[in-house]
Amino acid sequence: QVQLVESGGGEVQPGGSLRLSCAASGFRFSNYGFHWVRQAPGKGLEWVALIWSDGTRENYADSVKGRFTISRDNSENTLYLQMNNLRVEDTAVYYCARDLSVAAGDYRGQGTLVTVSS
Amino acid sequence: QSALTQPASVSGSPGQSITISCIGTSSDLGGYNYVSWYQHHPGKAPKLMIYDVTNRPSGISNRFSGSKSGNTASLTISGLQAEDEADYYCSSYSSSNTVLFGGGTKMTVL
Lengths: 118, 110
Description:
The complex is a heterodimer of chains A (about 120) and B (about 110). By secondary structure, chain A is mainly β. In chain A, a hairpin with a 5-residue loop joins strand 4 and strand 5. Chain A is globular. Chain A starts with a strand and ends with a strand. With about 110 residues, chain B is mainly β. Chain B is about 0% helix and about 45% strand. Chain B contains no helices and nine strands. In chain B, the strands form two sheets. In chain B, strands 1, 3, 4, 7, 8 and 9 form a six-stranded mixed sheet that branches. In chain B, strands 2-6-5 form a three-stranded antiparallel sheet, with no helix packed on it. Chain B is globular, with a radius of gyration of 13 Å. The relative contact order of chain B is 0.34.
């Protein structure tokens, strides 16, 4: 069955970096675009980034543009989110999702918690 | 990148129907038929309930339906059940090649 397992979260100081991973299985990874979405404590869902199925295009929310990079390794069936220059407001649970249509995310994992704190 | 507008809360009794609205602009929700709705229970993965305005993924009950008129999309849940109680989010593709979410609606079954 379709599985997406996020990992790589943790606690980091402001200005630090983390790389999140999303391991996929149960479907042809290379056929899908993927999203990262986050939920800060007590807040709603916020879209973060999108990468197309062939990896040729990426799009980012203004709040992370220039600091975060989404990438994928189709040979390893894994999606990544490199997060640099982290801010306190980046604290959230981060979810990955495959794109079933346009901006229609199929979420399967429990997410990974990123805490940015001094 | 302004968020889509949803009511903070809605409620209904078992068996009733409720509708959650989602208001955008002509640059996002009104300009594309790429509106999705998600059900989210705290601590769990968001669940896609509706995509492309009206389509239900496999396995989603036909008690859930979506529609759109102009810059407003709606999610209707009919025959309310206790397990429908959750947070619901709308989302839409936008002209800036990004995705917008609504602020979320807490749906309570009375």
